[in-house]
Write a structure and sequence with these properties.
The protein contains six helices and 15 strands. It is an alpha+beta fold and 313 residues long. The longest helix is centred in the N-terminal third of the chain and has 15 residues.
Length: 313
């Protein structure tokens, strides 16, 4: 909000009252009003919105959630808000679009006695960075509560428009084995009989990305069409990785909070794009599987993934 600034123009008016009569008697003029000795007070300017107001909004949202106040918590989100949970099974990326999808998630959380503890670590313009701990009936039953997360919020006009939450490496290390006891990993899929291809398309739309399915890449040079249809962020990026044999998509998504890729991930493609742009690229892949992550900024946040994508000779 702009500061209201009203220039002060002081106009001094001296009023002299004279009484004129028909008689020859001269009437003394009324005394002149004394000049003011002090300027009138300057109007108080309307305060600007401060970056801390974003932190207050996040705190109110969490407070209402902890109180079981569904509508009070949701009131802090914009109608078109998007929520990203990063690093959690089964896919490593869960996306909730719009307040109604968020409502269903919040209702389930409240029903499971969800509790939230946050520490705001940084406020950068309209972005709020948070360290969080959460308690949920499921994680209580597994004996791993609380779990720790790194969260980032983006706000506009006093409302949360983006909320991204990434489980920490330490929390994932204790959550994963406990989860495997009650939810064993799915059996390895039967190798596909689909013929490998040397072309693929990735579409970024609606705050996430999708690619051709089923898709098996042919080892060697691959032609990639990347269609960036979204225009809500200033920059988008697409990355593709190969991983060491003992790592998977969940490990990769947990690592996205760090500034640099982990040593066990090899980048085979990286490209940035302005909003609303399409591009045709080539990259070379010799072995698989390949994993894909889409990004947006600001804030730097993974917004979609795919993989494993098989690679065949």
């Amino acid at each position: 909000m702009k500061t209201l600034s009203i220039p002060l123009n002081l106009v001094l008016a001296i009023l002299i009252i004279g009484v004129a009569g028909c008689s020859s008697q001269v009437t003394q003029p009324a005394p002149t009003a004394p000049l003011p000795t002090e300027l009138p007070p300057t109007p108080t300017p309307v305060p600007e919105a401060t970056p801390l107001s974003g932190a207050v909004t996040v705190e109110k949202m969490v407070e209402r959630m902890n109180a079981g106040d569904l509508e009070g918590s949701l009131a802090n989100f914009a109608d078109e808000a998007m929520v990203y949970f990063i690093g959690l099974p089964p896919t490593g990326m869960e996306v909730y679009t719009g307040k109604e999808q968020i409502r269903a998630l919040w209702q389930d959380s409240i029903a499971n006695h969800f509790q939230w503890e946050i520490e705001i670590t940084q406020v950068n313009g309209n972005q709020v960075f948070v360290k969080a701990k959460t308690w949920h009936d499921f994680t209580r039953q597994l004996g791993v509560a609380p779990l720790d997360y790194n969260d980032v919020y983006e706000l506009k006009d006093g409302k949360i428009i983006t909320y991204g939450s990434t489980i920490t490496k330490e929390a994932w290390a204790k959550f994963r084995p406990a989860l495997a006891k009650v939810m064993p990993p799915e059996a390895t899929a039967t190798p596909s009989s689909t013929s490998p291809v040397s072309e693929m398309t990735v579409n970024l739309e609606g705050g996430t990305c999708t690619t051709d399915t089923p898709l098996i890449l042919k080892a060697g040079q691959v032609q990639l069409t990347w269609n960036v249809k979204d225009q809500d962020n200033s920059l988008y990026a697409l990355t593709m990785f190969t991983l060491d044999q003992d790592k998977d998509i969940l490990d990769l998504m947990v690592s996205t909070y760090d500034a640099t890729p982990p040593s066990w991930a090899g980048i085979v493609f990286f490209e940035e794009s302005e909003p609303g742009k399409n591009g045709l690229y080539t990259f070379t892949v010799e072995k698989g599987p390949v994993y894909l992550i889409c990004w947006s900024k600001p804030p730097d946040l993974p917004i979609g993934n795919a993989g494993p994508i098989e690679v065949k000779e």
